[in-house]
């Protein structure tokens, strides 16, 4: 016995033409939105990595400055780090003949150059200050009356051309 099946394929009717194409376009749109979100996350991750790199550089520079100040206690007591000009003294590159003031001057020159080279718009200031976490590159706000030396470093962390991010380190001698 033969049974005749006459089932109609509902997808083959003319009412659904192009529906698969619309589904593909919608899925591509959603995929592109997701990929744009991933690109945004990647960009934020790169910015955070760059900021962490600059903070690490600033911390290393400030640690180097504090160690140099500790090594030149006479220069610290005489406030040579606060009043030094940012010029290297050739006598400090030799074995003998370098005074504590000349050493402070050379240290400040080397540290300032390092901040300018490693940090965008990097500015370094060494001064006596009770409140080391204030000030700007234009106005350091060093009170000068403290027994504590503050190492202040500013740089442009968000690439707007203005050095405003501050990392400080301090050392106090009794």
UniProtKB/TrEMBL annotation:
Keywords: Membrane, Transmembrane, Transmembrane helix. InterPro entries: N_methyl_site, Pilus_4_PilV, Tt1218-like_dom. It holds the Pfam family N_methyl. Residues 41-108 form the Type IV pilin Tt1218-like domain. The keyword Secreted does not apply. This is Type IV pilin Tt1218-like domain-containing protein. The chain crosses the membrane at residues 20-41. Coiled coil: none annotated.
């Amino acid at each position: 016995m033969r049974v005749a099946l006459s089932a109609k394929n509902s997808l083959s009717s003319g009412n659904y033409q192009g529906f698969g194409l619309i589904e593909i376009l919608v899925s591509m749109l959603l995929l592109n939105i997701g990929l744009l979100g991933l690109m945004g996350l990647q960009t934020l991750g790169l910015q955070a990595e760059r900021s962490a790199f600059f903070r690490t550089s600033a911390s290393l520079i400030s640690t180097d400055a504090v160690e140099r100040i500790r090594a030149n206690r006479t220069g610290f007591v005489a406030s040579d780090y606060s009043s030094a000009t940012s010029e290297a003294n050739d006598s400090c590159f030799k074995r003998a003949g370098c005074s504590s003031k000349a050493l402070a001057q050379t240290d400040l020159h080397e540290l300032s150059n390092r901040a300018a080279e490693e940090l965008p718009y990097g500015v370094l200031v060494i001064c006596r200050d009770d409140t080391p976490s204030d000030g700007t590159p234009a106005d350091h706000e060093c009170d000068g009356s403290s027994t504590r030396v503050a190492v202040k470093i500013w740089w442009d962390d968000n690439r707007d051309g203005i050095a405003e991010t501050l990392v400080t380190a301090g050392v106090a001698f009794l």
